[in-house]
């Protein structure tokens, strides 16, 4: 399994807008082959920062999604400029 973890800082006062855009994007892409789930996390100390996490069955499904991934430009417009994405191999889980 793979996990894509994105951390970003949202422009001040735009978290609700970002959350709405994220939820709409998640609904549009929820039936993507190999996608096991998505999570949006808001930092409890820095209210304008958070994480978006997606869990993928395998690298092939994730790579296929990346090639055809719908435009998420509207979400990226909410970021201050601090935006980091990491792809991780899941090596352990209790789920």
Automatic annotation (TrEMBL):
Keywords: Monooxygenase, Oxidoreductase. It comes from the Bacteria. Pfam families: ABM (PF03992). Residues 9-69 form the ABM domain. SUPFAM superfamilies: Dimeric alpha+beta barrel. GO terms for molecular function: monooxygenase activity. Transmembrane segments: none annotated. This is Antibiotic biosynthesis monooxygenase. It comes from Terricaulis silvestris.
């Amino acid at each position: 399994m793979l996990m894509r973890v994105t951390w970003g800082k949202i422009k001040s006062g735009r978290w609700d807008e970002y959350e709405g855009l994220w939820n709409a994007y998640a609904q549009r892409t929820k039936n993507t082959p190999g996608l096991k789930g998505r999570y949006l996390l808001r930092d409890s100390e820095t209210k304008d920062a958070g994480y978006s996490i997606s869990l993928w069955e395998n690298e092939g499904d994730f790579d296929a999604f990346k090639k055809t991934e719908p435009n998420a430009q509207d979400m990226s417009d909410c970021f201050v400029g601090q935006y980091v994405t990491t792809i991780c191999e899941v090596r352990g889980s209790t789920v």
